[in-house]
Design goal:
Strands 1-7-6-5-4-2-3 form a 7-stranded mixed β-sheet, with helices on both faces. It is 36% helix and 15% strand. β4, α6 and β5 form a beta-alpha-beta unit. The chain is globular, with a radius of gyration of 21 Å. It is of the alpha/beta class. Bound molecules: pyridoxal-5'-phosphate. The site of pyridoxal-5'-phosphate has 15 residues, from α3.
């Protein structure tokens, strides 16, 4: 099936009992058993598995071209499950600009368990190569990255790890956080990644009405360990959240087309504006990642970042003058949002680390929604002054 068909049908067959075309929301925490220890219809307790989540997990796996999908209560709950693949003494190798919450999770939660995080000197394959060590057990990357929209050649990173041995003789696991691209634009498993992670809160749900997360893998060994953790730790989404996410997914490729259109229009507008110093948008042909992006993605998400001339004061002014674009954290919804990474999504990163990563106080990250691009440009024109 093609992607437009998959989003509508994968994991979403009409309900066999009633014929309902939407997967019913199964509000049941437990399921009747046939006497002692006999599962009647494949379910026993809803944390372990339930029909609403099973349908969503089937959809997620299909969208990423993976064998197994796992749904979680948030992107961070999904990330935590992936980090459970590690042991004390293992190292995570990551990039300078990844989601600030991932940085916080690595350093503030996992360091105390003896899991160290090494940050490559730059968001490049060469920098990752230079930072690999015998203790590297997990390589955690984003492409496009949050918030600077750097593009990383995922197949090249997978090639780097092929044949390498991690701390227990296993090849280091390559995890790609695919939140920014969404499976409509990029499938990291096909590029050699072992695990794909998502904040389902973003493009997958698409309507800023649910917090959820997902992992997808084709590796049976990893899936068994992740599935065990999902049940043991219990960070699962509610049946209602599963339904909302699945409903959002059905329009994902249609939404992505308009997000992309608006990103191109707004990026071009910002580039020509006298109050804008630099625009970060991988759809520009002179973006250093453009060729790789064209090769590994099927389009561009609605994400554009830029530096405002005049520093933090100018950002404050800009945010106070926006009338349509909403100043807020998060991204990927139908409505356009403006985020200030230094004080919002990446505030958990110490200022000197933030600056090293290029997350300056005058950096603004836009998530362009699906409104008419002319209205977004008009709003920005008035707000930039
Ligand atoms: N990964 C990326 C790239 C994100 O932007 C976010 C949230 O902003 C997350 C993971 C975490 O997801 P959640 O907020 O659903 O826990």
């Amino acid at each position: 099936m093609k992607f437009l068909t998959l989003v509508v049908h994968a994991g979403q067959e009409p309900d066999p009992r009633t014929g309902a075309v939407n997967v019913p929301v199964h509000f049941s925490s437990t399921f009747a058993q046939d006497g002692l220890g006999g599962r009647r219809l494949g379910f026993e307790y809803a944390r372990t598995g339930n029909p609403s989540r099973q349908a969503l997990e089937t959809t997620l796996a299909a969208l990423e071209g993976g064998a197994h999908g796992l749904a979680f209560a948030s992107g961070q709950a999904a990330s935590t499950a992936a980090l459970d693949l590690l042991q004390p003494g293992d190292e995570i190798l990551t990039l300078p600009d990844v989601y600030g919450g991932s940085y916080r999770l690595f350093h503030r939660v996992y360091e105390k368990y003896g899991i160290r995080t090494v940050t490559a000197a730059a968001s490049t394959v060469e920098a990752l190569k230079a930072a690999l060590s015998p203790a590297t057990a997990l390589v955690w990357v984003e492409s496009p990255s949050n918030p600077l929209l750097n593009i990383l050649d995922i197949a090249a990173v997978a090639g780097l790890l092929a044949g390498r041995q991690g701390p227990r003789g296993e090849r280091p696991v390559l995890l790609v956080d695919n939140t920014f691209a969404s499976p409509a634009l990029q499938n990291p498993l096909a590029l050699g990644a072992d695990v794909v992670a998502h904040s389902g809160t973003k493009y997958l749900s698409g309507h800023s009405d649910v917090v959820a997360g997902a992992l997808v893998t084709s590796r049976q060994d990893l899936w068994e360990r992740l599935k065990f953790y999902q049940n043991a730790a219990g960070g699962v989404p509610s049946p209602m959240d599963c339904y909302l996410l699945q409903r959002g997914i059905r329009t994902l490729p249609l939404r992505m087309r308009q997000h992309e259109r608006n990103a191109f229009q707004v990026a071009a507008f910002l580039r020509g504006h006298r109050k804008v110093e630099t625009v970060f948008f991988p759809g520009f042909e002179d973006h250093p990642g453009y060729a790789v992006a064209r090769r590994q993605m099927r389009g561009f998400p609605g994400m554009v970042s830029f530096r405002v001339a005049g520093g933090l004061e100018a950002v404050r002014e800009l945010f106070s003058r926006l009338r349509l674009i909403v100043p807020a954290e998060s991204l990927g919804g139908v409505e356009s949002l403006a985020c200030h990474p230094a004080t919002m999504t990446h505030a958990a990163i110490p200022p000197e680390e933030r600056l090293k990563a290029g997350i300056t106080d005058n950096l603004v990250r836009l998530s362009l929604g699906i409104e008419d691009g002319d209205d977004l440009v008009e709003d920005l024109t008035a707000a930039l002054g």
